[in-house]
Amino acid sequence: MIIERNRLWDDTLLILTMAVLAGCGLIYEYLLSHYAGRVLGIMESTIYAMIGLMIVAMGLGAFAARKIQCAFNGFVWLELTIAFLGSSSILIIGGLIAITQTFPEILGSMFNLPPDAYPRGGIFKQLSFLAFNSPYFFGLILGFFIGMEIPLIARIREEIHQKHLKNNLGTIYGADYIGAGIGAAIWVVFLLSIDISKASALTAALNLTAGVIFILYYWQRLTWRKTLITAHGVLLVMIMAIYHYGNGWLSQMSNLLYLDKVVYSDKTRFQQLTFTKRNMGPKSGNIINFYLNGRLQFSSSDEFIYHSYLVNPVLAGSARHDNILIIGGGDGLALRDVLQWQPKHVTLVDLDTELMQLFKKPHEKLPHSLANEIETLNAASLRDERVNIISADAFIAIDTLLQSQQTFDAIIVDLPDPSHPDLNKLYSVNFYARLKQLLAGDGLIGIQSASPYHAKNAFIAIGKTVQAAGYSSVQQYHDNVPSFGEWGWTIASKIGTSPLTRLKSMEEFPTPHHWLTLPMTINAFEFSKGFYEDSDSVPVNYLGSHAIYQLHQKAWQDQQGLNNAHLQ
Fold it and tell me: Residue 302 catalytic?
C-alpha cells in the first residue's frame, strides 16, 4: 500500500511537471517568434517559420534523448540548459544585432572615415545577416532540448514503476497538450503585456523550479548533487538579474540601432514605441523621430509634408468639411491639419489606446522637454472638444458607425503600411466598400498608400482595390518626404467628378496652407512614363487574399536584401 501511494505521488509530480514544462516550451516558441518578428519585420512568416523550426527540432531532440544514460540526471541538466537558453537568448540576440550594426561605425570612427565610406558590404553584410537570423538558431537549439523532455519523463516513470507502462506515452502527451494550452493562455493574458525580458525570466524560473523540486524529491537517485545545486543557485541569480535589469540592457542594445539619441521607449499591448532626438543647435531646435517596432512613423523635420498631402487635397475637393472621419492617426498630426479646416465634428478611430493617451496627454509619461515638443507638434489636437476618439479595431468600429447611420463629409485613412497580416484587412475591398457607405455623396476619401518607388506594386494594388470597392473615380499622387523617400497617396470620389478635376477647378485652397500650394498638389498627380503599364498584373486585395501584404513584404525584403542575401 505504501509503495502504491509513493508511486501515486511520483506520477502526480511527473505529470504536473510535464504540464508545466509544456507550457514553458510553448511560451518560448511565442517569445522567440514575437521577438524575431520585431527584429526581422516579417511578423507572420517569422512566427510560422519559428514554430515549424522548433517543432522539427523537438522531434530531433526526442530521438536524441535515448542517448542519455541516466534519465534522472539528464532531466535535471536538461532543465538547467533550457532555463539558461530561455532566459538569455533574447539578450544574446539583441547583443549580436547591436554589435554587427555598430561595428562598421566603430571602425569608421577609428580610421576617420566619412559616413558614406563605412564598411558595410562583404563580411560585415554577412555578419549582419547572420545576426538578424540568429533567432532561428536559438529556436533550433531550444526546440532540440525541449524535445527531450517527454522521452525522459516517460523513461523516469517506467523506471519508478520498474515495468513497461501500457498508457505511459498517452498520459505524458495528455499532460503535454493541456500544459501547452495553459501556457498559450498565460502568454496572451499576461506575458504579452509585460517586458519580453521579464517574460523570459519568469518562464525560465518555472524550468528552474521544476529542476529544484526534482532534485529534492529524487535526491538519492542523482549523482553530482552538490554541483547541480550550485548550478541552480548560479542560474537563479542570473535569472533574477535578467528580470530586474534585462529590459534596460535590451533597450540599451536596441538604442544602438538608432541614429539619434533615444529619449523615451515604451511598450504597449500592440507595439514598441521609441522616440529619438537630434539636437540641431539653438536656432534650429531639435528633430524628434517616432518609431513603431523599429520603423520610422514620423520625423518632426518633415512630417508636415506627409500630412499636408494626406489631408488638404481630400478636404479641398470635398463639398463640405463639417463632419470628418479619420482612421488611424493616433499621434494627432493628421487631426491637427484637419482641425485647421474648422470642422464641427471629427471622429478618430485608432486601435492603440496607450499610444493615443501618450500623444493626448504627453506630460503624464514623457520627459518634460519631449512632452512639450510633442504637444507643440500635434497642437494638442487630441484634446480638442470637437474630437470624438474611438479606441477600437477600425475594421469592427466602422460597423458601429454604419449601424448608427452616420455620414461623413470626408474620410482620411492614416494607417501604417500593410506590413502585418492583421493590417491587410484594412486595405481590402471589403473595408473600402464599407467606408464608401459612410462617405457623403459629394465627399472624398484619402488613403496613405506606401511608397510608389520602394513598394510600387503594393501602391498600385491599393488604388486598384479602392477602384474595385465601387468608387466613381480613383486617382493617386506622390511626392518626396525626405525621411521616407518617395511617398504616395490614393484619393477617390464616391460619385461625380474626379478629385483632380475638382482641384483644377479651384484657384487656391479654400483654407490656405502654410507650405502646400494648389499647383504643387496638382503636379503631384503626374507619374513617370510607363509607371502603370504593368498594372494589369497587379492583383486586387480581397478580404483574406493577403495580396497587398505579400506585395509589401516582397518589396521590403528586396529593399533589405533578404531575398538575395545568399547571393551576396
Answer: no
